[in-house]
Write a structure and sequence with these properties.
alpha/beta, binds phosphoenolpyruvate, TIM Barrel
């Protein structure tokens, strides 16, 4: 039985004071939820969120670099994230792939480094609208999953969360529907079974992401293959985020 996981991706929003206040309210309001709740905040807020001592809510980052340390101006290492109390890190988000030109090879190095230091990667995969229209959705997500997870050992795969995020549904108000998202996520799980064995594949949590709101979360959560959501815009507002966690 997989524990559902709902993670908020705050992107480049919230100063430290706003982040701490939102986390404090959220932590109280979801305290009795059976769902694992994560907030992936900007780097600048991570130590303050750790110091806040949230009980229920777990802390994640939105990116990292794969090197241990060195001359990488502007980058943050996995060890630094672990040091400030992060448990999760989003890797390969479509905005990183598109705007910052991250490819599968780089993302894979980050996944391996995160696992090495005990961080849990939330690996994002998903197709563009053009790829979907061309019938390439399954090929794209299978390829991103396979390349992103190259070299991960079967013992560690259950530490990874995968977020299936169709790019055309991110921040657009468009969503996939539960049935379609479930089919794509089933193909991701079949890929995991080929790579790591069926027993391990069954342990991996796979989220849906893309314009999830309190009003549509249930449609996704009732699908057998969908184990939670990665939430952007709606995670910036406590009422909406709580509404999603308490679907
Ligand atoms: C995201 O950024 O991962 C995301 C799913 O955003 P939104 O919920 O705003 O579509």
């Amino acid at each position: 039985m997989r524990t559902p996981i709902i993670a908020g991706n705050w992107k480049m929003h919230k100063n430290v004071g706003e982040a701490v206040e939102l986390a404090r309210q959220l932590d109280e309001m979801v305290a009795d939820s059976a769902v694992e709740v994560v907030i992936c905040a900007p780097f600048t807020s991570l130590s303050s969120l750790s110091a806040l001592g949230v009980n229920k809510v777990k802390i994640g980052a939105q990116n990292m670099y794969f090197a241990e340390a060195g001359a990488f101006t502007g980058e943050i290492s996995a060890t630094m994230l672990e040091d400030v109390g992060c448990e999760y890190v989003i890797l390969g988000h479509s905005e990183r792939r598109e705007i910052f030109k991250e490819d599968d090879e780089l993302i894979n190095k980050k996944v391996l480094k995160a696992l090495e230091v005990g961080l849990k990667p939330i690996l994002c995969v998903g197709e563009t609208l053009a790829q979907r229209k061309a019938g390439e959705t399954e090929n794209v997500v299978v390829s991103q999953t396979t390349k992103g997870l190259a070299g991960v050992s079967p013992e560690l795969i259950e530490q990874v969360v995968i977020a299936y995020e169709p790019i055309w549904a991110i921040g657009t108000g468009e969503t996939s529907n539960g049935k379609d998202a479930n089919e794509v996520i089933a193909s991701i799980r079949q890929t995991l079974a080929k790579l790591f064995g069926d027993e391990q594949a069954q342990k991996v949590r796979i989220q849906y992401g893309g314009s999830v709101k309190p009003g549509n979360i249930a449609e996704f959560m009732e699908q057998p293959e969908i184990d939670g959501a990665l939430v952007g815009g709606a995670s910036l507002n406590v009422k909406d985020f709580v509404g999603i966690v308490k679907y």
